[in-house]
Amino acid sequence: MDRKQFLTASGVLAATSILPVNSVLAEHYDTNGFERLVDANGNFQLQSLPYNNNFLEPYMDEETVHLHHTFHHGGAVKAANVDIQKIRKAMEENNFETVDYWTKKLSYHFSSHVLHTIFWTNLTNKKTDPQGELLKRIEKSFGSYDKLKGYLAATSKNVDGNGWGILGYQPYSDSLTILQCENHEKLTQWGVIPLLVIDVWEHAYYLKYKNKRADFVDTMLNIINWDNVSDRLNTVLKLG
Fold this sequence. Notes:
With 240 residues, this protein is mainly alpha-helical.
């Protein structure tokens, strides 16, 4: 994996370009239109969900899916566009008094956009299990599929405040790793590419599960689309 490929895969390239048009990931995102995070002009965009709002019933209720996608994910997209506009304005005017503020905001809002986009495609309405290369790597990194689920569940349930539980690929060590992310951007490992994310912000579960985050996480682990996780891993490995 050369430097440009690594930066592309890990999301470190400039937010307005995200993926070069000739990269494997860009081709993958073009095939799966929901994951086009920006439009032709480089503006962040919210795509329609790849399924109906009631697709995840009874595990995730229709109203929560609608509110979550439209107002929480959508709100992050709108805010990220404001952030990048403020940064561009600062550069054009050579006035950097507040640019650090907007840079921090962009980290927060754009990370939300990325993680939410992965989250929606990670879910299905039926039980699946990891297979093939993904299962081999799970067993190598964690011992077994059951141990991975236990580790990921505990990590997600115990996030301080709002955040995410994340299964990712770490190219530096060529291994899978678990992250506990606070908010959308804190406690991350440099270079890790998210493959599976579990949203444990209260807006993800409160209407149906009230304050029972643990019940929500256990339910989500039963409807993970492991075919999607496997596809993400295989796409990333092609960059090597």
